[in-house]
Structure formats: C-alpha cells, structure tokens
Specification:
- By secondary structure, this protein is α/β, with parallel strands linked by helices.
- The chain has a single domain, classed as Decaprenyl diphosphate synthase-like (Undecaprenyl pyrophosphate synthetase, 3-Layer(aba) Sandwich).
- 45% of the residues lie in helices and 14% in strands.
- It is built from 9 helices and 6 strands, in the order H-E-H-H-E-H-H-E-H-E-H-H-E-E-H.
- Helix 1 runs parallel beside helix 9.
- Bound molecules: ligand V0D.
C-alpha cells in the first residue's frame, strides 16, 4: 500500500464530527534528528519548518479549529547563540513562503508568549503574519514563542492584582474568570497534546490549559512527523473514552 493510499484510508477512518477542536504540539527532536543523520543541528530545524507547513495544512484540511505549536520556550535561550540566532530567522522564513497559503486557507496566526524579549526582527515578522491573517475565520494557528507556562500564570496573577487594585474585580474570581488572564483567553483548552521525540514530559507548556487533555506521545522526531502521524494521533484520540475524571 503506498503512502497516499494509507493517508486516504486514515483520513476516512477519522470521524469529522468528533475531531479534537484544539490540538497542541510540542515539536521536539530536530537536533537529534540532524545529529543522527550526521547533519548540522540547523538542518533539523530547517526540516522542522517543513513539518510545520505540512502539519498546518493537514490540520486545516481536517477541520481542526485551533492548532497550538510550541516553537520556542523560555528555556531555549540557554542554547548556543548561533543556534538561537538561526531559530530566530525561522518565523520570517516561514511567512516568506507560507503567508499566501495561510491567507488562502483562511488561517489566522496568533502569538502566545512574552514577545518583549524577542529580537525586533522576529516581532516584526510575527506581527506582519498576524496582521495579514487577522480577518481570517478558519483555523486559529498559535505559535508559542518565548513561552513558559509558569511565567504565563504569574503574569496572569499580576494582571489580576492590578485589576483588583483598580477596583475592577468584585469579590472572588473563579477558574473561568482566571483563564481570561492567560494568553489563551477565549480559546477552549487543548483536547489533544502531541509530543514528538520520545520525551514523556509537559515541559512547562500550557500547564493550566492541559488539565483535561488527552496526551499522545511518539518516538518519531519532529522532522519525520507526517500527516500519517497526525491522523493516527487524532484517530487514537477518538478511540479513547473521555471521562473528565468521572467514573
Ligand atoms: C524550530 C520545530 C516555525 C521547532 C519547528 C523562533 C524548532 C521549526 C516557526 C514560527 C521553529 C514561529 C512563529 C511564527 C511563525 C513561524 C518557528 C521557531 C522555531 C523559533 F509566527 N517553525 N519554527 N519558530 N522551528
């Protein structure tokens, strides 16, 4: 059976009315993929961008409402300067080739994370991407850039304190109100988290939002992650009984 046949078969085994509305992905293993192939690490990142393109296209085709991709964590600054510099060139590179497609496919781009510490060039690229797609009504594509979940929660608390001091809060707040202070305000929580490259951790990604998400792990390195894997994850998600902690 060839790849296209397998893709089509998987696609038709997915129930379109029970899709995970929000899929989040920790895109891990670019460096290891490259090293194992005897290539420079940046070759892994370059190939990783190709996987982002395919994943975005496939998700949007399937009818996913929100796709959230963990592109750069607050811990990633500790990598060698040359690697960080290379990574910081990727948003621009991605939009240069992909923006027409994103617009055509009605995808809206959004950033989650602390953009104040990103190089001006990256902020400019991301803002232009967000601006060019802001009226799109199809899939919402979140890029988590300089994102850390504990930082996000602490930031939310600080904003909340300010609102309280300004007299904007009446009495106690509940979970729903608290979540409005997060980067993901007004988005529903991820239904499915995918992590590639065999690591079985959440790594400070969407700690609050992942409370009830199904978790799906694969040993496949991000550059080798394909439509097939995405659809397998979605299929698995549909098979699992979601009980939300009830018996
Ligand atoms: C490398 C694997 C797309 C993870 C995917 C700055 C590591 C490829 C973007 C991107 C990265 C980010 C924002 C945006 C548009 C595109 C990206 C980084 C790394 C870190 F608005 N891929 N990608 N950003 N990699």
């Amino acid at each position: 059976m060839d790849l296209e046949q397998k893709e089509n078969e998987l696609k038709s085994s997915i129930e379109p009315d029970r899709l995970p509305g929000h899929v989040a992905i920790i895109m891990d293993g670019n460096g290891r993929w490259a090293v194992e192939k005897g290539l420079p690490r940046q070759e892994g990142h370059r190939q990783g961008v190709e996987t982002v393109r395919e994943t975005v296209r496939c998700s949007s085709e399937l009818g996913i409402n929100i796709l959230t991709l963990f592109a750069f964590s607050t811990e990633n600054w500790q990598r060698p300067a040359w690697e960080v510099n290379y990574l910081m060139s990727l948003p621009e590179k991605y939009f240069n080739s992909e923006l027409p497609d994103l617009v055509r496919n009605n995808v809206r781009v959004n950033l989650i994370g602390d953009d104040s510490k990103l190089p001006a060039r990256v902020r400019k690229a991301v803002n232009e991407g967000a601006e060019a797609t802001k009226n799109n009504t199809g899939m919402l594509l979140n890029f988590a850039l300089n994102y850390g979940s504990r930082f996000e929660i602490v930031m939310a608390v600080n904003k909340l304190i300010k609102d309280a001091v300004d007299g904007k809060i009446k009495g106690k707040i509940n979970e729903k109100e608290f979540s409005k202070y997060l980067y993901t305000a007004d988005m529903h929580d991820p239904d499915l988290l995918i992590r590639t490259s065999g690591e079985l951790r959440i790594s400070n990604f969407l700690l609050w939002q992942l409370a009830y998400s199904e978790l799906w792990f694969t040993d496949v390195y991000w550059p080798d992650f394909s439509r097939i894997h995405l659809m397998e994850a979605i299929k698995d998600y549909q098979v699992r009984k979601r009980r939300f902690g009830k018996v």
